[in-house]
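Posted in: Protein Modeling Q&A

I'm a second-year student putting together a small comparison for a lab meeting, and my supervisor asked me to include a predicted structure for Calpain-9-like protein. I've never done this before, so apologies if this is the wrong subforum. The sequence is pasted below exactly as I got it from our records. If anyone can share the structure token output, I'd also love a short note on what stands out.
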Amino acid sequence: MSEITKQPRRNSSNSNPKVSLGSPTLLGSPASRLPLQNGLYTDAEFRVQNMPIQTDVVWKRPKEICPFPEFIADGATHDCWFLSAVASLSLYPSLLQRVIPPGQSFQEGYNGCFNFRFWQYGEWTEVQIDDRLPTKNGQLIYLFSTNRNEFWSALLEKAYAKLKGGYNALNLGLPHEAMADMTGGVTEVFTVPPDHRMLGSFLGSLLQKGALINCGNSRGSPEKTNELGIVFGHAYSVTGLETVRGKC
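Accepted answer (user: helix_wrangler)
Welcome! Here is the predicted structure, written out as tokens:
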């Protein structure tokens, strides 16, 4: 998986994924029972109106964005609240496969339909979407990978947006909420102890047990950075712990 980047969001009116857009001319697939348009699945339940970015939005499938799209490639992942949870999840393939069922691709068996799973109210809920993604000037508006042929992260974001009620529902959020939705695990929020020397041993034991950890610094103006380069109001994924000796 490759590094992924997220564009800032703008406010928009509410969106309900359960409200149908209408009834386009669709053909049913005898094998899959999916509504197909031009041979590809079209999700009529995903709201495409009232997008946070209104001007010149064009919905395109990955095969219309690049000639050889891939669902998952090799690499790493990171970014803000939703992305910090995805980043932690990507470190554990067995957990990631619960959310992203294996065997999906743009090659064999491709019909424009992708499935994801999220933990909701004590059970795994499957969310089905088509692969149309919002673009502007030929580029993805929201989440995208540094490998421009890779689309798993953008499609995962769309599925999560559908679950929550639309892209605008992801304007604000907390990493532990997304973490619970993608693991089914119990999350805990704590404040860094005043004695920072205790933090290393505390986090080290959690990481050794396989805990997924996110962090953030809210003690400053949003989007400003501290002396270490940490952006206030942003979420980060903790992937390891090292002791560094400085000069006295």
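A couple of things worth pointing out for your meeting: Confidence is low (pLDDT under 50) at residues 2-32, 74-79. The longest strand covers residues 113-120.
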